[in-house]
């Protein structure tokens, strides 16, 4: 189902790792509908 596009994950937001506190605050405050993605910063 994922491969043919019939099922998709709900993504609420993407945050760089250095904005973890902001993303965690949204989760703790129950302001999230879907998933939060934390992206590692470039080395």
Can you offer a commentary on this structure?
The structure is a single chain. With 43 residues, the chain is an alpha+beta fold. It has one domain (10-43). The chain is built from 1 helix and 2 strands, in the order βαβ. The chain has one helix at 20-28, and strands at 11-16, 35-39. It has a two-stranded parallel sheet with strand order 1-2. β1, α1 (20-28) and β2 form a beta-alpha-beta unit. The radius of gyration is 13 Å and the shape is flat. It starts with 10 loop residues before the first strand and ends with a strand. The model has no long low-confidence stretch (mean pLDDT 90).
CA gyration radius, whole angstroms: 13 Å
Mean pLDDT: 90
Structural category:
alpha+beta
Query: What fraction strand?
Result: 25-35%
Distance between the termini: 35 Å
The parts where pLDDT drops under 50 for at least 5 residues are none
Please bin the fraction of helical residues. Answer: 10-25%
> Got a strand count?
2
Write the element-wise H/E pattern from the N-terminal end onward: EHE
Q: Compute the number of helices.
A: 1
Strand order of the largest sheet: 1-2
Molecular shape: flat
Biggest pleated-sheet summary: 2 strands, parallel
Count of all domains = 1
């Amino acid at each position: 189902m994922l491969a043919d596009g019939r099922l998709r994950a709900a993504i609420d937001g993407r945050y760089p790792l250095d904005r973890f506190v902001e993303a965690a605050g949204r989760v703790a405050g129950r302001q999230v509908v879907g998933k939060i993605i934390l992206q590692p910063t470039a080395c």
